[in-house]
Specification:
six-stranded antiparallel β-sheet; single chain; alpha+beta
């Protein structure tokens, strides 16, 4: 075959499918390359870590609130107890300043403090004190030998419980009442104890004249 007879095949233009594929592959490549970069930038620019000073401030505020919630009620209790204690001491001092009242305690007072004073008692004196620790009734009276037995029996004890030479009234109560329990007197005393809230009676008797004993009693009740 000669050169003249040789057919030259014209160059074919590229197909649209191949260009689309290359275009899509290019776009997907560019998208793929840009995608990770964008996502990594978003994570890096996300919510910043909390400010340390702000965290410390919040903790301090919480701690302060807790301290206030616990401390304020406790403070009120301490103040209230102190006021009650001072009030009780003031009332006791006032009663001591007034001294024993020459009269019979009321029927209710005698029942509360369990003091069955005999009906033939003479020279009855009393007064009552109250404070945050205890309530006390101080009573002094003269009675007969039979009256003493009735009184002791009504309290819940008896003459056999009286110990010769024993004074059961405390020094504190002596200062409050001004009672005298010195030598030269035939003293006899006993302490009749009851379970709270019933009162306990400290009883001392002047037995110098057995026919006309003088009874001193402090009945104390704990709330």
């Amino acid at each position: 075959m000669t050169a003249a007879e040789h057919h030259i095949v014209p160059r074919q233009p590229p197909s649209s499918g191949s260009s689309g594929a290359s275009g899509s592959s290019g776009s997907s490549g560019s998208a793929g390359s840009s995608g990770p970069t964008g996502s990594s930038g978003g994570d890096g620019d996300g919510t910043p870590p909390p400010d340390r000073r702000r965290v410390i401030r919040r903790r301090l505020i919480t701690l302060t609130i807790i301290v206030l919630l616990i401390g304020i009620p406790a403070g009120y209790l301490v103040i209230s107890a102190g006021q009650s204690r001072r009030s009780g001491k003031d009332k006791e001092a006032e009663a001591a300043a007034q001294g024993l009242r020459e009269d019979w305690p009321s029927g209710m007072q005698r029942r509360i403090f369990e003091l069955p004073i005999p009906g033939n008692a003479q020279g009855v004196q009393y007064y009552e004190t109250n404070n945050w620790k205890a309530s006390r009734m101080y009573v002094k009276f003269r009675t007969t030998s039979a009256g003493l037995d009735r009184f002791l029996s009504g309290v819940g004890t008896g003459r056999a419980a009286l110990e010769t030479g024993k004074v059961t009234i405390s020094g504190r109560d002596v200062k409050i009442t001004g009672w005298y329990f010195g030598p030269g007197v035939d003293w006899a005393g006993t302490v009749h104890k009851n379970k709270d809230p019933r009162p306990t009676q400290n009883i001392t008797v002047n037995m110098t004249d057995p026919g006309a004993p003088v009874v001193y009693v402090v009945s104390a009740s704990t709330p």
